[in-house]
């Protein structure tokens, strides 16, 4: 990670933790240069990241100020960008997983295309339900190439796959492309998620990438509509 990216994350965390509140002015560039021991160009790049995320605004002749966004929303944006996964988002409460299916299968043309692998390669197929404080939140359908995510076993699936990828395999999760849409729950999903007939689900389709640009996950997560919110900051 580059220095300006580290500084941007540090400033973002300070905003989320209310060290800098709404409408507070960030320290001047000169002050931040001294605090972080870097040049003004590095500070400018870090602040520009926060501007692009819509967390701060620059006012000509006045300085840089925190925008009116709730800290909880900033926390969600931060966690989404860092791709912490379900366990990371709910790290302060009890998180458990129930593995419904775990197999190594031949890839289909669609999955191979999503993961940028050949049609004769094998992938893990994982179906599991994720719980927060023993309440079902989401059912996940996940495909991972076995030559990228090696040694995956059922005990890992019952915890956090992302922690295994980063802490055991020493791989760095970098980014994801997501599409969110509404879908209807099937009978099995209604049973596992404990929802009523005709209850809609929010589907998050995702392709996730390592820092070397290699796709390591293609998944569709079906969230209970009463347990999932999508929040974003849009700037012009």
TrEMBL record:
Keywords, ordered alphabetically: DNA-binding, Repressor, Transcription, Transcription regulation
GO terms of molecular function: DNA binding; DNA-binding transcription factor activity
Domain of life from the UniProt record: Bacteria
One matching Pfam family: UTRA
Domain HTH gntR-type: 1-69
InterPro entries: Bact_HTH_transcr_reg, Chorismate_lyase_/UTRA_dom_sf, Tscrpt_reg_HTH_GntR, UTRA, WH-like_DNA-bd_sf, WH_DNA-bd_sf
One GO term of the biological process aspect: negative regulation of DNA-templated transcription
Listed PROSITE patterns: HTH_GNTR
UniProt key word Transcription: yes
Protein name per its UniProtKB record: Putative HTH-type transcriptional regulator GmuR
Organism: Clostridium celatum DSM 1785
Taxonomy of the source species: Bacteria, Bacillati, Bacillota, Clostridia, Eubacteriales
